[in-house]
Amino acid sequence: MRYGFIVPGGGVHDRVAMAVEAEAAGWDGIFLWEGVYHLDAWACLAAMAVKTERIRLGTMLTPLPRRLPWEVAAQAATVDQLSNGRVILAVGLGVIEPEHLGDVNQERDRKIRAEQLDEALAVLDGLWSGEAFDFDGKHFKLHCPPGPKPVQQPRIPVWVVGRWPAPKSMRRAARWDGLVPEVPKPDGDGFAAVQADDVRGMLAFVTEHRDEATAAHPYDVVVDGQTRGDDPEATAQRLRDLYEAGCTWWLEADWSGTEESVWSRLRQGPPR
After folding, report:
1. Which GO BP terms sit in this record (predicted)?
2. Which whole number is the average pLDDT over 93-98?
3. What does DSSP say about strands 249-252 and 87-92: parallel, antiparallel, or unpaired?
4. Mind giving me the DSSP string for 238-260?
């Protein structure tokens, strides 16, 4: 299993410094979230790319329906070239929480946002081929001459949020390169922690619904949460269970911590 660290905030120079520290501490990836009006994740990742050598760089996550897909494709391909092939793109519908994340003139209807997500993913895939690409969809239309290719082929790995056990959401995730699972609580109030049994069920679904082309490539299952860096044994069994069930990435995520506690956990390294 690989271990990533989600940076919850901080200034632009702090974020770049965190990437350097994360690489030194043994983390396998570092990830930034994308807000409505926030430090630009891709500019920060570009700076991280030139200051690091090994660590994977990505978003967690990019709310693709409210972005122009050709711009995201160009940003991701640029950072992939800068980093010599270390980018991961995680995408989802994006949450709408004006009181916390800000608000813009974006589609509210979940079904339409799902359509936008599917079309945007197809646009990314087509543009990253480096060949001339035409797309005539319901929400996006473009005609592009050949453009920059990512270092990674056949494409930059794309992780997609899948709401378990919603079949449409899970089928979308199965078509790409990794799953970022959401498990709604029974009462509908938020999401539950992903358990090993959930991972087994999800992987069985994904295996059944992957097509022949994608089935030839590895598939990631990405779970986030918090662990205690000063007491690895406290969470060792949970991580072991997730790994044995098929989880490939654990992302350390502390959205409520102070700047001091976030830096401390980063420097303690992954819960191996």
Report:
1. alkanesulfonate catabolic process
2. 70
3. unpaired
4. HHHHHHHHT--EEEE--SS--HH
